[in-house]
Design brief:
16 strands, twelve-stranded antiparallel barrel, globular
């Protein structure tokens, strides 16, 4: 998408303010992508809901108007039969109960990577991919956002080693992303793009309590609609079914809206 003029940027800011944050999900931590990749032929279904923690309309600018909740559902499937090089592809249907975005609710994602220790001993997990892939055209007078962010990213992750009787403190992930200039604008200057930033996370299975309990904190940088800090935990009800419960703190509420509580149901087939 070409660089916007100041007038177009102002229109973009108003549009994003009515949509709130949105994420078409590859395999993730809570909000950001992870280096995890679905195994070959395993179909993963995510059903994610984001409920506003407050009724005051930060994105709309109208205290009497509640920022929209967000619902996202979509499958992801592993497509490579290799141990050291893995790949997943998927798509999402995302609803924000707001026009014009819901006229274009579908977006795609893919990820290619390699797990820890696969390249050499102690090598980190590595992953590259894209999400929120879609048209960068317009709907009416407003550019498309959620289906046209076209965010590309690269990540590395390493599980911290055990030290004697001290168990591993978990896994650390770090990376960077870059998206479409027209979709990821600066919260403080609508004529300027803010389409890149860091990706950081910590996660750990809390084996001292239960092998079914997992906790994570992740962060996506950037003065744009995607910038957020997220804290949460997951409980595995069975080998193939788990639910994440988390709280999402949006960096730029004028764009993303109020903070949200999220529930993310994850189901693997078979």
């Amino acid at each position: 998408m070409t660089k916007m003029t100041r007038i177009a940027g102002m229109a973009m800011a108003l549009f994003v303010a009515t949509t709130g944050a949105a994420l078409a999900t590859p395999s993730t931590q809570i909000w950001i992508p992870s280096t995890d990749i679905q195994p070959y032929k395993v179909v993963h279904l995510n059903i994610d809901n984001y409920f506003r923690a407050s009724g005051v309309g930060k994105a709309s600018g109208d205290p009497a108007r509640r920022d929209a909740n967000v619902m996202d559902i979509g499958p992801t499937v592993g497509i490579l039969p290799f141990d050291k090089v893995q790949m997943e592809v998927g798509f999402d249907y995302l609803a924000i109960a707001n026009e014009p975005n819901d006229n274009h609710p579908f977006s795609g994602n893919f990820k290619l990577g390699t797990p820890e220790d696969s390249l050499f001993k102690y090598s980190p997990a590595l992953a590259v991919g894209m999400y929120n892939i879609g048209t960068t055209g317009s709907a009416g007078n407003a550019p498309l956002v959620t289906s046209g962010m076209n965010i590309a990213y690269a990540l590395a992750a390493k599980t911290l080693p055990e030290m004697g009787k001290v168990p591993s403190l978990g896994r650390i992930s770090a990376g960077y992303y870059r998206g479409a200039k027209g979709a990821l604008i600066d919260a403080n200057n609508p004529a300027k793009s803010a389409n890149e930033g860091v990706l950081l996370s910590w996660d750990r299975t809390m084996t001292e309590i239960s092998d079914k309990l997992w906790m994570a904190v992740d962060y996506q940088g950037g003065n744009n609609v995607m910038g957020a800090l997220n804290l949460g935990a997951s409980w595995a009800f069975s080998k193939n079914v788990s639910v994440i419960f988390a709280y999402d703190i949006y960096k730029e509420k004028a764009l993303a809206g109020n903070n949200t509580f999220t529930t993310q149901l994850d189901i693997n087939f078979p």
